Amino acid sequence: MNKLTIYLANLTHINNNRVATETIPLNIGYLAAYAIKEFGGQIVIKLFNLMSELDRAIKKQQPHILGASNYAWNSNLSYYCISHYKKKYKGLLAIMGGPNYPYILGEQKKFFEKRPLLDFYVQHEGEVSFNHFIRTYLKHDLDLEAIKTEEIYGCHYMSGGELINGKAVDRLQQLDDIPSPYLEGLLDGFIVNGLTPLLQSNRGCPYSCAFCCESIQYYNKISHFSPDRVISEIEYIAPRTKSGSVHIADSNFGMYSRDCEISNAFKSIREKYSWPKFISVATGKSKEERVAKSVELLGSSLPFSLSLQSTNPQVLKNIKRRNLSLKDLNSIQQRVKSKGGYSLAELIIPLPGETYESHLNAIKCLMEIDVGYIDPYTTMLLPGTPLGEDHCFDCYDMVIKYRIIPRDFGCYHGNKVIEVEKVCVGTKDMSFSEYCTLRGLHYIIYCYYNKGIFKELFCYLKSLGVSAFDFCIALWKQISDALKTVKYMFDAFMRNTQSELWDTESEIYDYYAVDANFEKLVHQEVGCNLIQKYNGTFFVHFNDCLDYAVNIARCILKKKSIKFEDSALDAIYFYILNSRGKLLENTTQSTILKLPFDIHAWRLDDFSAPLSKYKQNAILKFYRTKVQEQTFANYMEIYGRTEDGIGKILTRIDPSILYREITYMYGLDIINEQQKHEK
Question: 142: which of 45, 49, 289, 536 lies 20 to 30 Å off by Cα?
């Protein structure tokens, strides 16, 4: 018999020549590596993340098995892929796997009924189950009907109108039993194409958060890859990748003593290759000392991720969530800050039990401990999670809506495919109107507070007794006083916050089945991550947005009868404007600025003394380096120059790496610089 040919696809949508999911498909790499280890020359496996590449491959050679990953962002695309090729090629066996599969038996059956051309589903951890499947398929000489006469561990399928539920396989305890797909060269093509490397040092999560796919008991125990294995992967990727970032898929990085070893490896690699510039990861929710050490090693490259979701005790109880105390979080935060790092906190609304007031209080608490980045999410009701099951909806009087998953749509073989997610936008504790109102505040926080874009202004106000929270509230509630461009931008965000929501999935599919409406998606008029898109808009209109912030600051100080110097606010304004206001301009043109306060020295001293102590003339040169130019160009190539693309870039990097460099100018230097500009 010929070799068993297997095509595994973790597909991403692509539109405007840009992929929606830019990470390397590590999951199918693991499946391939583990299968090759057992079956060797009996099989041929090829990996794909683009439909176009899969098209070309199938035209050359039809596989025996087509496997597709099932995640929220590609579920419809994966099944479209399966149904398209099943109709076109006789004898093709189709299998899916991934976390967004119902865990309730009745819902599993409905999953198959909606996907009549799907042959098998691999549930839970896939490597062992998939090998069971291959072994059974080979035993029955590739006879589809024959393999459906026996139970296949970890695999589900329909037979005679009934769901056959194969016994779940035990999870792998020694993850190093899976050969590294990186070190085996299975992922080289994806690295070369510039996708963001995805790494995993452990699997599982000890927590049972109701909104998460890892909440079920099956995933509660932790298994590890060896540090040596992970470090070898880092060393392999570093000289080959074109991406500036890396994503670690662990649920709680930093909680384990071995994670410091991995962080040290990243530090050494960065010194050699200037990579990675940014590490995206969810840090641990306990073992604060260990977490802090891992974060400290990498400074701003690795943010301390406070996956809080809420600070309301009743909410945490409702969703079976355990958090570090705010006292412990503050302790880690101050340590991280002292080492040049920053922290990130996630909040989710409206979770069961969360109120308008308690959510505001959570934001206030996080700002009081100086968390650098607050990321509020809408509650997503994912398949395969307890919170995503129907019984929760009535229990908490959830207001259910549907929306397009940002950027996850495309047209394939003339067929429109769109990914839709179910979200909760109201409960008995928080009305839909309150939810929408709070999204406006989230937008203000995202643009003005996060990542310290306006750090100097916030620090000056703090020194005069005005808190970051009060300033953000004022920016939010006085938006009607803003310049026309700023007000229009905010109003557009608020309108789209509601207009992106639909009552049913079918309404979305029907509306975008019309070509003219689908073109709105293609041209990014709709279907984007709204906060990211309008964060990009914010930087397009940065000057006006800065004007608004400084004007509101003046109003607050005057209203509170707080003494301040107008010239200090002016100096802060021009410093921010010239270092960050030209963030999107790819130019080496420098600017020389004379300020009555040495804002730069104040910043370098970490704002440790009152600004009044820095009241002295400072002549500063603002410029962008060639390295910054190239970094900017690389990111623009990946994400594009659209407002949505710019917004996405700013979530993937620390924007400070794009700030203009600043040096002091003295006597002859000033004259030479002026002559250069005259020429």
Answer: 49
